[in-house]
């Protein structure tokens, strides 16, 4: 079962079907879709409901933990942050997106710090990594702020809208995370 997590400004909670229209509106912005592998543009009607149902199944099975990022002050859904687990290797991929109106306000970093804590302390992970397209330096900057280390760049590694894109990998091990918390 997916818990609800808190930070100073945010609540990270399970998605509900009632979030679907806002997910479609926020994630459907072309600048969000351009920087992610799996978000389509235009975002199809009914797509958010399908995604929310499948993410609930992943969470129940313990394979993925997608959190709705919600502001505490206005109770407003502003994005998504998730951990997708590889249980046999005790690692997870961190992924996130925020609606464009919420960029540049530190929300991604704040949410990601709490999710790293959840992953290492509550799920017992050994490593958390994240991937960004090279053309998305803002995402890589979030990873750096979390103490993640650059692990490499893969050239033309993914195909997005008929263009091969380079990606960068960042990661942090539990021991590195714990040494930062002192």
Can you describe this structure?
With 182 residues, the protein is α+β, with helices and mostly antiparallel strands. The protein has helices spanning 20-27, 30-34, 47-60, 107-122, 137-145, 174-180; strands at 5-6, 10-14, 64-71, 77-86, 91-98, 127-133, 149-160, 163-173. Helix 1 packs across helix 3. The mean pLDDT is 94.
Oligomer: single chain
State the major sheet: 8 strands, mixed
Q: H/E series, N to C?
A: EEHHHEEEHEHEEH
Q: Please bin the fraction of helical residues.
A: 25-40%
Distance between the termini: 30 Å
Taking pLDDT < 50 over at least 5 consecutive residues as the criterion, the unreliable ranges are none
What's the arrangement of strands in the largest beta sheet? 1-2-3-4-5-6-8-7
Class computed from helices, strands and strand pairing = alpha+beta
* Overall number of strands: 8
Overall morphology: globular
Please tell me how large the radius of gyration is: 16 Å
Average predicted local confidence, pLDDT: 94
Strand content: 25-35%
Count of discrete alpha- or pi-helical segments spanning 4 or more residues: 6
């Amino acid at each position: 079962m997916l818990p609800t997590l808190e930070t100073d400004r945010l609540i990270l909670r399970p998605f509900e079907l009632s979030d679907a229209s806002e997910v479609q509106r926020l994630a459907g912005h072309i600048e969000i879709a351009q920087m992610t592998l799996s978000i389509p543009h235009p975002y199809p009607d009914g797509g958010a409901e399908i995604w929310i149902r499948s993410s609930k199944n992943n969470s129940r099975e313990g394979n993925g933990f997608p959190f709705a990022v919600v502001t505490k002050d206005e109770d407003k859904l502003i994005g998504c942050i998730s951990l997708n687990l590889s249980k046999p290797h005790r690692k997870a991929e961190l992924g996130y997106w925020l609606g464009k109106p919420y960029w540049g306000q530190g929300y991604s970093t704040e949410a990601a710090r709490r999710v790293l804590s959840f992953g290492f302390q509550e799920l017992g992970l050994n490593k958390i990594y994240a991937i960004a397209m090279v053309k998305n330096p803002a995402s890589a900057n979030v990873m750096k702020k979390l103490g993640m280390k650059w692990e490499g760049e893969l050239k033309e590694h993914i195909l997005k809208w008929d263009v091969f894109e380079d990606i960068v990998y960042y990661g942090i091990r539990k021991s590195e995370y714990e040494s930062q918390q002192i």
